[in-house]
Write a structure and sequence with these properties.
It contains 13 helices and 14 strands. By secondary structure, it is of the alpha/beta class. The chain has two domains: 292 residues, Type I PLP-dependent aspartate aminotransferase-like (Major domain) (Aspartate Aminotransferase, domain 2), CATH 3.40.640; 106 residues, Aspartate Aminotransferase, domain 1 (Alpha-Beta Complex), CATH 3.90.1150.10. It is globular and about 80 Å long. One of its GO terms (molecular function) is 2-aminoadipate transaminase activity. One of its GO terms (biological process) is alpha-amino acid metabolic process. Its EC number is 2.6.1.39, 2.6.1.4, 2.6.1.7, 2.6.1.73.
Length: 431
């Protein structure tokens, strides 16, 4: 693939930091190497020496003094080498990416960059790919954090219609029909280069793409020369035993950049995510990080690495199954509360993944004031649907309810209060 057509002028102009390159070289050097190059602080002066971290199973994760020095020091921009190796094994086990062992094309061969949560990876990838005026395809509605990234970049948001099964290929084809697939070879064409989608448990709708839709969307991406940005923080929160195959698992061309997060399954505060995709693009992402955050927290990486080394892939997946089981129970509780209080007042589809229920309030044109003011007065907090629309000025009669934190009793009370609000609003609305 010709990746240069996807990269903007800023990204093409980025060069490796000589000091960062030396830092990464030092991390792979033998102990006999004498370095007078890097401006690394002396770890003997760090006040933290070692740590014992108690796990929920009662065992203790020990970070000894030698490992602690690594955890507190500057590290390679792309990520701790041992952690990246573990992550590649995980991606191989879960997705078996066709490009993982592609030795024929160094550019498209899959590599991994560890990021400060997946949000930072998404932000930097958009900043390296788009120019003002570019057309970007994405789910509508979609994750508000992604909209916050894209709007200041001056791009045109081409919202693709979605339903309970995610992005609709028919809608995608209709939007793209204004261009010829051959325009992907025309550098002067404004044909979109990127499609962004959340395949599982979409925030906010809870929608999940079917395998058939993923295959069709990938084919469309091939036809029109699109990069697929697969933002999948809820991959492990799929409530069925069988996980839906990812775009990464279908990627024979090296056109998928996949964003994974440990926030939902290990800790959101650790700020640890990873971007998997073509080496030429993950390398460009790394250059961006060299000029900004330098690297993801070394301590977060070491802490997670030590845990994963103990668990191995089998133990890690057992943990994710426990997490998923919890959120499935939470989902069932919110669905029960909605069935109890909102029948005839709202409509919804039961999510098969994630943390969210997307409620369409009947007889109400727009939920902004209702949720931002009146719901707060009744002490129930939800998110109005306009926040997730590609065009936030269009009235929206949806609200997002999260079932991750509230107890079953709190969810029942919240749905009861929401029902009261809807009735009041319907009563006060002109017929």
């Amino acid at each position: 693939m010709n990746y240069a057509r996807f990269l903007n002028a800023t990204s093409l102009a980025r060069k490796p930091s000589p000091i960062r390159v030396l830092t990464e070289l030092l991390s792979r050097s033998p102990p006999s190497m004498i370095s007078l190059a890097g401006g690394m602080p002396n770890p003997e002066l760090f006040p933290f020496q070692e740590a014992d971290i108690k796990l929920r199973d009662g065992s203790t994760l020990k970070i000894d003094s030698s490992t602690m020095k690594t955890a507190l020091q500057y590290g390679p921009t792309q990520g701790n080498a041992e952690l990246i190796t573990w992550m590649k094994k995980l991606q191989s086990h879960l997705h078996n990416p066709p490009t993982l062992n592609d030795d024929q094309d160094a550019d498209s061969k899959m590599n991994i960059c560890v990021t400060v949560g997946s949000q930072d990876g998404i932000c930097k990838v958009f900043e390296m790919l788009v120019n003002p005026g570019d057309n970007v395809l994405l789910d509508n509605p979609t994750y508000a954090g992604t909209l916050a990234i894209l709007r200041p970049l001056g791009v045109n948001l081409l919202g693709v219609n979605t339903d309970q099964y995610g992005m609709q290929p028919k809608s995608l084809r209709k939007i793209l029909s204004r261009w010829s697939p051959d325009e992907k070879f025309d550098k002067n064409s404004d044909i979109p280069k990127i499609i962004y989608t959340i395949p599982n448990g979409v925030n906010p709708t809870g929608a999940s793409l079917t395998t058939e839709r993923k295959q069709e969307i990938y084919q469309i991406a091939q036809d029109y020369g699109l990069l697929v940005l697969e933002d999948d923080p809820y991959y492990f929160l799929q409530f069925s035993k069988t996980k839906s195959p990812s775009f990464l698992s279908m990627d024979v061309d090296g056109r998928v950049l996949r964003f994974d997060s440990f926030s939902k399954i290990l800790s959101s505060g650790l700020r640890l995510g990873m971007v998997s995709g073509p080496s030429v693009l993950t390398n460009k992402l790394s250059l961006h990080m060299m000029a900004s955050v330098l690297h993801c927290s070394s301590f977060s990486q070491i802490m997670v690495l030590e845990l994963l080394k103990r668990w191995q892939i089998e133990g890690f997946l057992q943990h994710t199954e426990k997490v998923t089981a919890f959120y499935k129970e939470q989902k069932d509780c919110l669905i029960a509360a909605a069935n109890k209080h909102l029948k005839g007042l709202a409509e919804w589809h039961e999510p098969v993944a994630g943390m969210f229920l997307w409620l369409k309030l009947l007889g109400i044109k727009d939920t902004k004031t209702l949720i931002e003011e009146k719901a707060l007065a009744k002490e129930v907090m939800l998110v109005p649907g306009f926040a997730f629309q590609t065009d936030e000025s269009v009235p929206c009669n949806y609200v997002r309810a999260a079932f991750s934190l509230a107890t079953p009793e709190q969810m029942d009370t919240a749905m009861e209060r929401l029902a009261e609000l809807i009735r009041e609003e319907q009563h006060n609305s002109p017929s």
